[in-house]
Here is the input.
Amino acid sequence: MKNTPIVIALTLFGLTTAATAQTTHHHAKVKTETVKAITPPDSVMTAFQAKYSGDSAVWQMSPAGNYCAVITSNGQKEYAEFSPSGEWLHSRTDLTPDQLPDNAKAAIQTKYPGMEIATVQKLEYGNVNPFFKVDLKQGDQSKEVMVNTAGYLSED
Here is the structure.
C-alpha cells in the first residue's frame, strides 16, 4: 500500500497535460501540448461499457501501454485504466471533502486535529476494497494519508 500513490501517479502521468516554456529574443512564450486522444480496441470498449454503462469517455494511452478513460459525470472526474485485452485495472475518482465517508472523516479529525482536508481521491482496485487518498493541510504543513470507509488510516 505504501507504493500505491507512486504507482498511481506514474500510471496517470500519461493523463496530464504537459506545459513547456520556450524563450524567444526578449519575450517568453508558453506552449501547451495536450495528450492525443485515441480510440481503444473493441475488447476495451466492451469492458468499459460493462463497468460504466451509458458513460462516455476521452481515451488516452498510459506510459505502460494501457488504455485510460477520462470520464466526467455530474461535475466529477474519474480515471479508469484497462489493459489492452480489456481487463479493468483500477480507477480514481476526484471527490470533494464532503464526499468522504463519515468514519473516514472522524478518524482523520481524531488523529490530525486542526488539519484541513484539502483533496480527496477514491481509489479502486479489483482485489481490494475501495479506499481514499486524502491530502491534509494546516498552514504550510501537509500530510498524505490513506483511509478506508471503516476509518482505518495508513500513512506514507
In short: The two ends are 9 Å apart (CA to CA). The longest helix spans residues 42-51. Residues 1-33 have pLDDT under 50 and may be disordered.
